[in-house]
Predict the 3D structure of the following.
Amino acid sequence: MTTAEKLGQLNQMAGGRQIALNSRINEAEYDRVRAGGVGSYLHVAGAEFLAELQRVAVEESRLGIPLLFAMDVVHGYRTMFPVPLGIAATFDPADAELAARVAAVEATSAGLHWTFAPMIDIARDARWGRIVEGAGEEPFFVSAMARAQVRGYQGTDLSHSDTILATAKHFGAYGAGAGGRDYDSADISERTLYEVYLPPFWAAADEGAGSFMVAFNDIGGVPTTANRALLNDLLRGSWDYQGLVVSDWNSVLELINHGVVETRAEAGALALLASVDMEMTSGIYAADMAEAVEASPEIQVAVDASVLRVLMAKERLGLFDAPLAYNDPAREAAVMLSPEHRAAARQVAERSMVLLRNDTGLLPLADAPGRVALIGALADDARSMIGSWKAQGQPEDVTTLLATLQERLGDNLVYEPGAGTRGEADPEAIARAVRAAESADLVILVTGEDYNLSGEARSRSDIALPAPQQELARAILATGKPVVTVLMTGRPLDLEPLDADDATILVAWFPGTETGPAIANVLFGDVSPGGRLPASFPRRTGQAPYFMGHYPTGRPADPDLSKDSARYMDIPITPAYAFGHGLSYASFEYSGLNQSTDELVQGGTITISADITNTSGIDADEVVQLYVRDPVAQVARPVQEMRGFSRVTIPAGETRRVAFTLLPEQFAYFAPSGRFEADAGRIDFRIGSSSDDIRLTGSFDLPASVIADAPGAALVTRVEIEGE
Ligand code: GLC
């Protein structure tokens, strides 16, 4: 390979824009392909269209190396699943895997080999717009969801033409941006980096994720795109990661903005030496690096290593043997929006919903709830239902809640948009909504954010409901009518004025193509809600970042204001709604706690189990959660960490025994030694229905310290269910 051909393999060009796929593939691009000047395109799609581009690469370039075609397929390709934070709220890795699998089947049928997903950035600050794209705040939980999505996207054999290369993104600590601002600096300790932000990436690599994407931001002033300690020493060295690392959009060029280089060529050199294999869209590798490569043996070695990893990714996908295996127009037509895919999207959407409050037992609704007023523009906002990063999702494919309720309730339904999410509320529109509410027996108020108030570059300084929505909510609540609130959102929100006394609140996130049927099935009790919060809801913006796994401090927060403690004086010390919170239409009792041993020895395991009884008259799911606390260690340890969860379907009146089996290494933390260690001593554990609804507790000892080679949160807890 010539130097130009090598650098061409490392060059990823935008073949279009998200909203105009393929739009930049002109004759000049075909010539670039013929010259071997590009290795991959993103924002392209179409089995037939990409077949021609691939044919030119394979038949009309000197080396005939196939191209990689990529897109952000983050929560569905054409059949849209809930936004990722909603998928996480299912608290079931099987749902996350199913969503990824369906997305892979549809995306690969359209000629795509590579998705920039899963996004597994830990998000502890609800102001950050991209919290919507991930699985929330908790390292063990996000690690489990990372593994499930990698399995879903990549299947068991990447050479199968319905499997797609996954991307663990955005490697480092993208979610730690100061102030919850997107792209901002992550000024965090090494311990926080290793214990909080990196475990999901370790898990994704362990699960075989074929690629990583670096984050835009710097960690302590070192831009991740040029962070040799993080990429070369840790990822390539300690973790021995052999996969493909891709930059983020123009992030190589942005090294100039970071102020660590002055020229494009200097930026390219830093990124290449940091083993960023493929450069997304800034074109520096292909256009500016030939001379530097010729002049520097060190950069030459780096380029060769990167080219090998790019070629190996293409080999894993089977593209050298069958470059057009992903280009079957008949398959593309057959799989898009299939009934099976719609059914899967509806199932995951139903299971993603979180019942925050049901104070007066208003839910589930009776089949004939009388005259219902459906209030809120979001009830008819098909575009918002498919969220950000919608890939090829189409609003016209969406069944809105309005459409479903019109069909289900007919003349017993009156609808008023009342207010949108932007600008000023229209008093007359609100007045119409109030009149509709007053004419009804029951109000369903659909409120929250629209899809574009979260996502990339969508951080908010205030996580309150948009002003017109607050105004509408106050007016509707003032009618005194029974109100069921359905909350559409991409982030935890300050729920003022919704979470007043006697509230009924169902979090629906943005549920995807099957929005209407999914929400209606939960509201009318066809499905009992079983979702849980993957991120804490702060009481108000000032409490952000709020997360469960914080350190106790020397003066642990105390509700007694007369005591000086780590708290605000003007609000309670708890979040509005805790990590893992979610109600059900059923009720469950926890009993029969058992632990297989009182001492967890090196090489041994401990199994902690309990009986969960559905004491209600309806079949329902319960999410059984296992938390731990290391009360005394070489450094302060979080007040609570998750180490197990299981969503279990338990028929009315029946009991299931849930057993969690753990290894000593799962209690290892980033010790002052720089290794992952667990000290000899006691470990406390708690089993409950939420992080703040603990039902059973116990403890055991680690008789000897443990040295591990992985973050404890990244390891897998085995779960067994007895009685099914
Ligand atoms: C974006 C995002 C990244 C995405 C990439 C390609 O800026 O940060 O998540 O994969 O560009 O669309």
